[in-house]
Write a structure and sequence with these properties.
Layout (H helix, E strand, L loop, with lengths): L31 H5 L16 H7 L11 H10 L7 H8 L3 E6 L19 H13 L2 E4 L4 H8 L5 E4 L4 E3 L14 E3 L6 H15 L6 E4 L4 E4 L8 H13 L4 E6 L2 E6 L5 H11 L8 E7 L5 H10 L3 E5 L10 E3 L2 H14 L5
Parallel strand pairs: 1-2, 1-10, 2-3, 10-11, 11-12
Antiparallel strand pairs: 3-4, 4-5, 6-7, 7-9, 8-9
Helix pairs in contact: 5-11, 7-8, 9-10
The protein binds ligand L263DTV3.
Length: about 350
């Protein structure tokens, strides 16, 4: 087993160049809207409660490496969430004779975390690895980013894309026989929220101008308020401003990611629903010979891990350098390890027997 003498800072960033944009248009929503009206389950990416916002922002943003003494904690954790590379043979054994379906988060999974969200490009090597995986198994990108933006980073037409935390699902034009509309859209359960999201984007952008380093990202069906580049003494004020704006919008909820506050519609739809939706759309629902693999690094990916646990299908793999509470059953330390895992999977020749 690899020895990790100290936990690296989870939110250390790497520099990266910027990318240009590309756009898809949206059409009327489909059946997933009905499903999204169900009761919200707040266990994982649920809303932040009053008073807890700044604590929550700090907790999700550890800046310092833990001391070497924390190794015991790590060893205990890694025993429960083994490396998917070191435990590769067990993964293969579990997948044997089953149809693998691959789900990949983007930021922190396929690209390293960087200061500027616009610069979070993935390497050509990683693109090759994802391309190869998609030649063998149905593969979807599931991201908090707007779908057009994440597509523009990944640039692979043959994948399924679920942007806006799964609220915008798209099928490839070739290699898929799914019934999408003319633009490839399969599901947009939050389409009614578009005007309100746009309105809140404008308001928050204005408000955040007074906070150096703050940035609001429009992810179409949801928004991200980034505080990675904001001085910590300003976090309280930033959180309060965001909360004050949201008081006027009871149909929106606030969740958090890695140095980011996420604003999204209060509908029962998350990355877990997107995973279930795609499995069903692909005709895999209820089948015992399906092996979904979901790889992600963020709290929002826990919703997908939870679905896999609940259905007893496949595995969730958490990308992290430090122990975290997770529903994932395996772990990988960083995007480079994700790439290695994808390559190994392709090389292993595992296919449905
Ligand atoms: O679901 P994901 O694909 O993981 O997207 C989640 C959020 O990722 C991005 O923010 C994160 O990555 C940035 C670039 O490395 C980093 O600067 C930021 O601090 C992280 O939170 C993205 O910008 C957000 O819109 C996504 O919601």
């Amino acid at each position: 087993m690899t020895k990790h003498s100290a936990f690296a800072a989870e939110d250390a960033v790497a520099p990266a160049p910027a990318q240009a944009g590309r756009h898809f248009s949206s059409l009327p929503p489909r059946d997933c809207r009905k499903a999204a009206l169900g009761r919200m389950d707040l266990a994982t990416s649920g809303p932040l409660r009053a008073g807890s916002l700044v604590d929550s922002m700090r907790a999700s943003s550890p800046r310092h490496a833990k001391p070497a003494a924390a190794d015991a904690e790590y060893l205990d954790w890694i025993e429960k969430h083994p490396s998917a590379l070191e435990g590769f043979e067990s993964v293969l054994a579990a997948a044997q004779g089953k149809q693998i379906v691959m789900f990949l988060d983007y930021d922190g999974t396929l690209s390293p975390i960087v200061q500027d969200p616009e610069s979070a490009v993935m390497t050509e090597d990683m693109r090759d690895a994802v391309r190869s995986v998609a030649q063998h198994f149905p593969t979807a990108i599931v991201s908090g980013r707007g779908r057009d933006k994440v597509f523009n980073f990944v640039k692979l037409e043959e994948l399924y894309y679920a942007g806006s935390h799964g609220m915008d699902i798209w099928a490839p034009k070739t290699g898929s026989n799914l019934k999408a509309n003319g633009d490839g859209i399969l599901c947009q359960p939050a389409i009614d929220f578009l005007p309100v999201i746009e309105e809140v984007f404008q308001t928050l952008t204005e408000k955040m101008e007074s906070i150096p380093g703050a940035m609001v990202e429009n992810n179409k069906f949801c928004l991200s308020v980034h505080f990675r580049c904001v001085a910590e003494e300003e976090w309280d004020g930033l959180g309060e401003q965001v909360r004050a704006v949201l008081e006027g919008y009871p149909d929106l909820r606030l969740t958090k990611g890695r140095k980011v506050l996420e604003i999204r519609p209060s509908i029962k739809w998350d990355k877990g629903n997107a995973l279930e939706f795609l499995l069903e759309a692909l005709g895999f629902a209820g089948r015992g010979d399906i092996f979904p693999i979901y790889i992600g690094d963020d709290r929002t990916d826990e919703d997908a891990f939870k679905v896999l646990r609940k259905t007893g299908q496949g595995i969730g793999i958490l990308v992290t350098k430090s122990p975290k509470e997770t529903g994932g059953s395996y772990s990988l330390r960083e995007p480079d390890e994700v790439k290695e895992f994808l390559r190994k999977l392709v090389k292993s020749g595992v296919t449905k027997g």
